[in-house]
Structures are given as structure tokens and as C-alpha cells.
Amino acid sequence: LLELELPQSPSEVLHAGSGAPAWQSAARYAFMQGNALRFANLDSEKAVLEPAFTRLPSRPSRLSFAADGALVYSRLRASGATTYGELYRFRDGLETQLTTNARARDAVAEGACVLFVRDDYTQSALQRFCNGAIQTVWVAPQGWHVFQPSLSARGEIALTVWRPGGFLDIAVLRGSGIQFLTSDAAMDQFPIWRGEELVFSSDRSGTTQLYAVTIGERSAVALTVHANGAMISSRSPSGILSFSSFTGAGMETRWMRDPATLKRVALEFTDPVSLPDLNGLEYALEPYVFNLSPLF
User: Fold this and answer.
1) Neighbours of 91 (CB within 10 A)
2) Cystine design at 18: which of 93, 147, 244, 261 (Cβ 3.0–4.6 Å)?
């Protein structure tokens, strides 16, 4: 496939800071500015901030609107000498804690329920909080870690999956199994649904840009060519695509109308390299010798 020099994708600044906004409607959205939870409306191609904001004790990893209009998210909370990720609801200026010692992160609303990831450093599990109880949806194989679950209109769940060997790829749950849409050396993450497609961030072109892939296809289409990169996207009901981008002054969030296909790239699948079993191996330890000799 030929690599073509393409003009930069047209987009406008939504606000300073990183993180995907949570869209409540075609115009209104919530976003984090530091630790401040803010709301804004995209009016006549310009974001208009609502004056009220709430400063949270810690920054949520992402925001999502539930069916009743409340925001749901996970954030860190100190519990004695330990810090846990817990689930919260926010509505009408009030925050309500939903869980205790849940180790929750990457929460996303699922109707009246909340889908989230629980990670104990050796293994990840996808769990659901519903009617005050936590249910396990899927447990990743030992050594895998999952991030950023995304729900389609049909209830399909897409994930970012890290596997030993440094593989970071996009996958969709299929019953008790999982179907990978990418599996290569590129860093693919932050999936969101766009109809039957998944939009995700990838550095496969050398800079991080947005791509779209349809389940079952072995190719993806580029959606952005942005000099400062494009990542951590979200999509409004009216088709506005927002994303984070690096600038000389820091991170900013930009928006664009649903982009057209720029170019198609092949997806070459590679299996992760099996790591050697280190059980039972012994290595000699050299004693530390204090030395002030120059290194060069």
C-alpha cells in the first residue's frame, strides 16, 4: 500500500486539557479540567461553558452518562492506608459513592448499570454493578490486562487488551471468548463505537491518529491526519468526534464532524511471543561495591 501525504484533518479546539468528553446530547457534554468537573454546550461551532463546576477529590479516569441523566465514573478514594478505585454517581451537584473496596477503573454506563474493570495487578476482570450488587462479566487470562470498555447500541463490548510481549490491541467480547480486531506491534487503544465500526487510537503511522475498523475485516481506515496526534476520542449523538491532541502549551481537546475515510491500511495479525518460563531458574547476585569512579 502506498503512503500518501495528506492534508491535516480540519478540527476546532473544544477546550484545554485532555480526556474524552461525555456527551449527554448533541450539544451538551461533561468534561474534566484538572480535578474540576465541568459542563458545556457546543453552540454555533463554539463551546460555551456553564458557570457552575465541582472540584472532585481525585480525577475520574473517564465520564459517562447513565440512562437517567446522571454521570457515572470511577475515581480513587483513600481508605485507611490504602487507596481504592470506587464507582460514583454525580447529579445536580451531588456525588454519591456506589461501591466500597471495588478496585474499579474505566467505568462506563450500561443503562441503569455500570460496567467497569477490576484489576489486581496479575489479572483483569470485567465486572458489572447493578442494583447494588457486583457481577463478573468476563475474566481475562492470567497475565492479561484490559482497559477502556466501550458499549455498542446492541450491547457489544469492545476493549483495549494488553498481553505479555507488549501487545496492546483492540478486541470485542464474544460470549465467553474474545475476538481481536488488531494484533500487531502498534499501540492500539481507546475504542469507541461508530455504528458498526470501532474508532480507536493507534501509532501505526508513526504518530498517534484515529482509525476505524469493522468487525471481521483485515483492514482499517484512517480518520485523522493531525500534526499533534489524535487520541482518547468520544462521539456525540449527532456525529461530532472529539479527541485529545498534544500542543506546545499542553494537551487540548478538539472536535470535528464525523470524518470521511482518508486512506485504508492493512492489518497484519501477529501472535504474541511466548515468554520463557522462569520458574526454577537461578541467577547469581553480585555484591554491591561502593565506587565513586567516574562512569566515562
Assistant:
1) 13
2) 244
Q: Report how far residue 85's alpha carbon sits from residue 88's, in angstroms, rounded to the nearest whole number.
A: 10
Strands (E), 111-166: 113-119, 124-130, 133-139, 145-151, 157-163
Handedness of CA 131, 134, 140, 144 (dihedral sign): positive
Evaluate whether 261 touches 222 at the Cβ level (below 8 Å).
yes
**Rounded (5°) CA angle 56-62-63:** 75
pLDDT tens digits for range 116-150: 999 887 789 999 999 999 999 999 998 899 999 99
SS (H, E, C) 63-110: CEECCCCCEEEEEEEEECCEEEEEEEEEECCEEEECCCCCCEEEEEEE
Count of residues making up the chain: 296
For the whole model, what pTM was predicted?
Answer: 0.84
